[in-house]
Design goal:
The two termini are 36 Å apart. By secondary structure, the protein is of the alpha/beta class. The chain folds into 2 domains: 185 residues, Periplasmic binding protein-like II (D-Maltodextrin-Binding Protein, domain 2, 3-Layer(aba) Sandwich); 86 residues, Periplasmic binding protein-like II (D-Maltodextrin-Binding Protein, domain 2). The strands form 2 sheets. Strands 1, 2, 3, 4, 5 and 11 form a 6-stranded mixed sheet that branches. The longest helix has 20 residues. The protein has 10 helices and 11 strands.
Length: 293
């Protein structure tokens, strides 16, 4: 009697619905990259993903880099699908012509986001409310808050009645003391996944980001035709130039230095219980070669 093949359990990849995350994942979704086992995806806003990572809910999840030290025991940090700002990033906006007091009320996109940590260091007296990132611009316009930090595609196109009070990039440069890129978001993989399988998953996702980047025009058109992104073609192209580019495929030494600096800053300001180095918490790819050598 012929035995049925046993299919491995699917791997859940959770990512945000913003254009760069969708772009970097959809080479898998469209079948351009073969997966070692079935992948399923969930698209949720970044703070929902951060909260889910604290609960260990998904196999692989997009996270804000500032969250990572808090989940380091449960998740390994992946080298791929990363977003860094280089001279740009989230923006603190307010109504034109207004002046912010020291204790101004501000809307942030989530307690565990990178921009929230840097903002809280720079503005310790501000009164913070947390909102879905899509609601922040409206909250400022309607006077619910005095200011808000815009993220994702919102940084490229916001209401003409608003103006930038300060760039989070400038806060980062003051704290970091150099021109390192601003670490915003990446991916983490649950440590309970067997190591060889974890290596395969990371390699697959790395290939997907690379394939997406090399076929950017075709993939971008497919996303637009299927209404999978919230922005038009010109804005999508500009946004992908910022956050889904050659340096998103795999972290380089400069990005690792920036990540270590972010973790150091967070520790020095009481956000983490101990200092960590990013590279110490990544998947050891050399294991596969040594095992089968």
């Amino acid at each position: 009697m012929r035995q049925k093949a046993i299919c491995p359990n699917p791997v859940t990849i959770a990512h945000s619905p913003d254009a760069d995350d969708i772009f970097m994942y959809y080479a898998v979704k469209f079948g351009w990259v073969c997966t070692p086992q079935p992948f399923v995806n969930k698209a949720l806003d970044i703070e929902t993903l951060n909260e889910a990572a604290l609960e260990g809910r998904y196999d692989v999840s997009a996270i804000s880099f500032a969250l990572y030290p808090k989940i380091r025991e449960e998740y390994a940090l992946l080298r791929t699908a990363v977003s860094f700002g280089e001279g740009y990033g989230p923006k603190l906006i307010k109504k034109k012509g207004t002046r912010l007091r020291r204790n101004f009320k501000v809307a942030l996109s989530g307690r565990h986001t990178t921009n929230a940590m840097l903002f809280r260091i720079a503005y310790p007296e501000a009164r913070i409310v947390y909102k879905n990132f899509l609601e922040i611009e409206k909250a400022v316009l309607e006077g619910e808050v005095h200011a808000g930090v815009l993220i994702h595609e919102s940084i490229l196109d916001f209401d003409e009645n608003l103006e930038v009070e300060r760039e989070i990039w400038d806060i980062w440069r003051e704290l970091a003391g150099n021109d390192l890129p601003l670490p915003l978001g990446g991916m983490a993989l649950r440590r309970s996944i067997p190591l060889l399988r974890a290596i395969e998953i990371e390699q697959t996702l790395t290939k997907a980001v690379d394939v997406a980047n090399r076929h950017r025009g075709l993939l971008a058109n497919m996303l637009l035709e299927r209404n999978l992104v919230r922005i038009d073609a010109a804005t999508l192209e500009k946004y992908l130039d910022l956050y889904a580019n050659d340096r998103s495929v795999t972290m380089d030494d400069t990005q690792l230095q920036a990540l270590d600096k972010l973790f150091q800053i967070g520790y020095e300001h009481g956000f983490y219980d101990c200092p960590i180095r990013a590279e110490d918490f990544m998947i050891p790819h050399e294991y596969a070669g040594e095992r089968f050598s």
